[in-house]
């Protein structure tokens, strides 16, 4: 028996060695280098004390919060609707809504350009309606649209999975007791979906905080943290500052996911 | 639920709008990739010129991405499936902590992982300039998806009883692992494999920092094309990418339980 137990751990060894050598050790190294620059360990406080970095942190947080709220609202409505109603084309609609699940950020940036770029379809529609072209892709608004685009598919899946488990009888009871539709949503559906919304929201928030590809495609001037870090690393070649900032960002996104997982009380896989 | 009032049609309309928001740009970029002049519209005619231009300029990135994705799949299979087996069997606090640790490369931004790899291995021989440097990043990022999807399947079947049955018939460990364990979790391995290949083909956040001019991957080439070439060429390149990735995504929808997927996907 003891030999079998030892054998079991032996099976984990290759993964453990690779993980330690290429993730744990480099992460430790990143931490040390972050504190080894001109400013020393104060570099870890720079995200708050340096005005540029702090502005970047604030705008990234605001953007991510906005994206999370909008995504939860949109996916919540559509997800519950799709769970409660079956109709012709239902499966196809769900398939289309979840197709962009694993599109990379650069491609999503390009999708935003197709929508709101200089030759974008929304610009065409606005031009046709008002006579003026609407170009929003190359700014914070474009980033907002891109992150929503990215977050909707997986949030809808999470909401649908949770809504499937809600008991429609509770809603019927509330209705028969005289609750209006809004009251049912507020007092029955939203509390029932709370754990799912919390975990989906945390993933959405953490993803938006750390995303790089979409911002990179749209414009490198958008002031969000990953772009700022990239600039510090390449343009200023300030490796210590870049290391410290990215380490702090990593701790931040990881903590958001960990807190939400504890709060939601379920073992939801992390993704960032 | 069967009576369809105005609320139903409102919500259906809303959901269709969301769907259009997601799908219309995909269709438009595919169309733009084969249109002579996108600004002039499809009246300007269709052409494969842009696709040809992409092929001439970027075919190496396509083959490199396929190569890295397959190598990444091989690594995650060899490393991930045995690890998942141990974690599923143990189910102790330690096993959960290890699982949590394995997921970290997905939870923290790719930028941070890439920087960590660069500051550590920058000076190690030719490693920095080799395609294996990118492979390492991709393996870290995709390994949790393989491990989790295999654990999910192992948790759903009574592996212990199956194994004990085989053991009582005299099967050794290797025979049990390859003859009983692996065949029983092939659905999880398949779902995990599709996810790994899809994510590796599309990985950009890390790869952008890890690549060198001689080790460009498809998404790196895409970013290049978006920044410097005309819209039609960028679209044609995206079209090529979609042709490669959409079958994989459909495979994921068919073979993986969507419920599990919601929580574990990539980042933009």
Q: What number is the mean pLDDT of chain B?
A: 84
- How many β-strand runs of chain B? 0
Poorly predicted runs of 5 or more residues of chain B? 258-268
Q: Which two chains share the most extensive interface?
A: A-B, 100 and 95 residues
Structural class of chain B: mainly alpha
Q: Globular, elongated, flat, extended or rod-shaped: what is the shape of chain B?
A: globular
Q: Approximately how much beta-strand content do the residues of chain A carry?
A: under 5%
**Oligomeric state of the chains?**
heterodimer
The biggest beta sheet of chain A reads: none
Total helical elements of chain A: 12
> So how many helices of chain B?
12
| CATH fold call of chain A | MetI-like fold
Quote the beta fraction of chain B.
Answer: under 5%
Please identify the top-level CATH class of chain A. Answer: Mainly Alpha
Share of residues in helices of chain A: over 70%
- The CATH superfamily of chain A turns out to be MetI-like
Alpha carbon gap, first and last residue of chain A: 40 Å
Short description:
Chain A is mostly helical and 272 residues long. Chain A has a single domain, classed as MetI-like fold.
